[in-house]
């Protein structure tokens, strides 16, 4: 394990160069190249995404026009060390997820599904040949991925209850079943489908290519959170997939856990970004909004909320930094990622609520951005394992006793 107790050499960079909401200067842990990347992501999100995203959110549309710009940032599969992948490590990957969510949690989720869940399935569960085939075009975002695990009748209990079936017929597999909530699915080029092998009852992963006969979608309507993300129900009716598209190293449900451990950290970072964005909007607003002849930021009770928000953001960032360092050192356990996800999402939910509070009535108007972050936080709170599920994972680790059923 490398020495992770010392700050990187940051040359002439001063603590003040970090935005105010990075109160303890965590970004200074990154080397210069990674800080440059973070700044490019910040610039793209601020200039290209923030001015247009409320319109897409209202219309529940995905901004396909922004994909080339996201691709040019080179952040898809940022942490993975696979063919064509950037291999930049977990810490900068997490900070980039935070940076995306700080402006827009939907874009962060789109990237998390494509670059985290879908690319992660190929990287962690695919053969060398499959990695060579799919990862380089996915890293360039020429092929977009989705990840289909959850089903209409089973979410938290998916490990035992996964019902989508896979039956081998010669050099092909036949998939039947239903999936729900699958981000990017309706426009993805590659959909990773997790299904139970009828022969040995083990869960296996299959990469189903766009246009495969028997796979149809119903885009989910009327969401009150992450409206930009296109979630779909997937219907699989006798879908034939070649053996060459079965992820060769996915042998049981445990394989999905290997992917989710990493992506759950990404969601912890997203939650911190969502909270951080809300804090920044709130701070700016309270310094300009005047009541009783003074900026509302001058009132003690408003400062109390601002400082509590900053405390939440800073505590979550600290926890996530350490867990990402463990991930880079190959030491991250399921319970570490679960603690970070549960903690960061609870703290996010508090922080966005306080931000909304200090904006008064304007807190529910999309134009001030905080309202969108409040709504989007609700989805982040539930996906990639609810607070209860992640708590039970940590509870089992610290007591040695499983309380799941
Ligand atoms: C916006 C969004 C995007 C998503 N994207 C994807 C995706 O791309 N791919 C994918 O596969 N899935 C995706 N999901 C699914 C997501 O992972 C599930 O919603 C999540 O796992 C929870 O499952 P559920 O919604 O079925 O809730 P349920 O499992 O029905 O849980 C309902 C409530 O019961 C609680 N509960 C359940 N069991 C217990 C227990 N033993 N003890 C205590 N409490 C319990 C839960 O914590 C929760 O509060 C997405 C979900 C959302 C909302």
UniProtKB/TrEMBL annotation:
Residue stretches making up the Acyl-CoA oxidase/dehydrogenase middle domain: 146-238
Gene Ontology molecular-function annotations: acyl-CoA dehydrogenase activity; flavin adenine dinucleotide binding
Keywords: FAD, Flavoprotein, Oxidoreductase
Record-level GO BP terms: fatty acid beta-oxidation
PROSITE patterns the record matches: ACYL_COA_DH_2 (PS00073)
Residue ranges annotated for the Acyl-CoA dehydrogenase/oxidase N-terminal domain, each copy included: 32-142
Cofactor: FAD
Keyword Flavoprotein attached: yes
UniProt xrefs under Gene3D superfamilies: Acyl-CoA dehydrogenase/oxidase, N-terminal domain, Butyryl-CoA Dehydrogenase, subunit A, domain 2, Butyryl-CoA Dehydrogenase, subunit A, domain 3
The family this protein is said to belong to: Belongs to the acyl-CoA dehydrogenase family.
Protein name: Glutaryl-CoA dehydrogenase
Organism: Phycicoccus duodecadis
């Amino acid at each position: 394990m490398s020495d992770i107790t010392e700050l990187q050499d940051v040359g002439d960079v001063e603590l003040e160069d970090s935005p105010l909401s990075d109160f303890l200067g965590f970004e200074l842990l990154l080397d210069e190249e990674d800080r440059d990347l973070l700044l490019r992501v910040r610039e793209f999100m601020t200039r290209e995404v923030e001015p247009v995203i409320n319109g897409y959110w209202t219309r529940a549309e995905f901004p396909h026009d922004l994909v080339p710009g996201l691709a040019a940032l080179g952040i898809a599969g940022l942490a993975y060390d696979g063919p064509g992948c950037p291999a930049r490590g977990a810490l900068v990957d997490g900070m980039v997820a935070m940076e995306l969510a700080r402006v827009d949690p939907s874009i962060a989720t789109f990237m998390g599904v494509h670059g985290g869940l879908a690319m992660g399935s190929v990287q962690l569960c695919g053969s060398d040949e499959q990695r060579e085939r799919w990862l380089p075009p996915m890293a360039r975002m020429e092929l977009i991925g989705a990840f289909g695990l959850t089903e209409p009748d089973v979410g938290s209990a998916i490990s035992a209850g996964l019902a989508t079936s896979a039956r081998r017929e010669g050099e092909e597999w036949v998939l039947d079943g239903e999936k729900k909530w699958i981000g990017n699915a309706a426009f993805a080029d590659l959909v990773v489908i997790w299904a139970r092998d009828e022969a040995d009852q083990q869960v296996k992963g299959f990469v189903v290519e766009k246009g495969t006969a028997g796979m149809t979608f119903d885009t989910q309507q009327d969401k009150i959170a992450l409206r930009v993300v296109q979630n779909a129900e997937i219907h699989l009716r006798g879908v034939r997939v070649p053996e060459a598209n079965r992820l060769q190293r996915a042998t049981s449900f445990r394989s999905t856990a290997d992917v989710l451990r990493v992506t759950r950290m990404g969601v912890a970072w997203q939650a911190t970004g969502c909270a951080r964005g809300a804090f920044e909007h709130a701070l700016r607003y309270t310094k300009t909004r005047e009541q009783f002849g003074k900026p509302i930021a001058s009132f003690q009770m408003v400062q109390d909320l601002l400082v509590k928000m900053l405390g939440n953001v800073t505590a979550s960032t600290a926890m996530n930094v350490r867990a990402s360092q463990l991930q880079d050192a190959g030491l991250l356990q399921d319970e570490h990622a679960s603690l970070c996800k549960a903690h960061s999402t609870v703290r996010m939910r508090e922080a966005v609520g306080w931000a909304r509070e200090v904006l008064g009535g304007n807190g529910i108007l999309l134009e001030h951005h905080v309202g969108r972050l409040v709504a989007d936080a609700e989805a982040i709170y539930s996906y990639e394992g609810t607070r209860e599920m992640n708590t039970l994972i940590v509870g089992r680790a610290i007591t040695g006793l499983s309380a799941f059923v």
